[in-house]
Amino acid sequence: MFERFTKDARAVVKGAVVQAEEAGARSVAAEHLLLALLDREGSRASFALTALGLGDRRDAVRAALERARRRGGLTQAETDALAGLGIDVSGIVARVEEAHGVGALSGERRGGGRWTGHRPFEREAKDVLTGALRAATGRRDRRIGDEHILLALTARPGVPAEVLADHGVTHESVTRVLHGGGEARAS
Predict the structure, then answer these.
(1) Contact in structure between 19 and 32 (CB atoms under 8 Å)
(2) In the chain, what are the domain boundaries?
(3) Under CATH, which number does the domain 2-178 receive?
């Protein structure tokens, strides 16, 4: 499948590996794909993100991803659902971090040196890349671009989609910016 990726899409995948390395993560997650997309300039996905107003709010997205990482990767919706059952996730995180250090639930190595070696892609990251393939074939695109990775990130449930939606970037809005909407054609 990787041979069908455009130069920009390959750069996102490689950038996700770099993001995981810099974070000290043992594997590449969907959030690393999003972080790599945020670093891109001059591509279709970066155009869509900028058009949707995310260009000047990238630091806010990074901060929201960090908060989710500290919650052990739980979405805010999952945290709220657990709160409804009487489970205080922030309290649990505070106690775990008190005992094991800040970021203990993030899956990243802290204080024990950097993780070296091959970083496999987590199931959710693989699902995003498969979703990118589906997005491309659904539009009859021969190549998988970084815009297809962005569409796939917004289409599947999880922290990246939730964080993007909190910043006004949804599957529908990305589709509208990239491919136009019915109202744009009607005028």
Answers:
(1) yes
(2) 2-178
(3) 1.10.1780.10
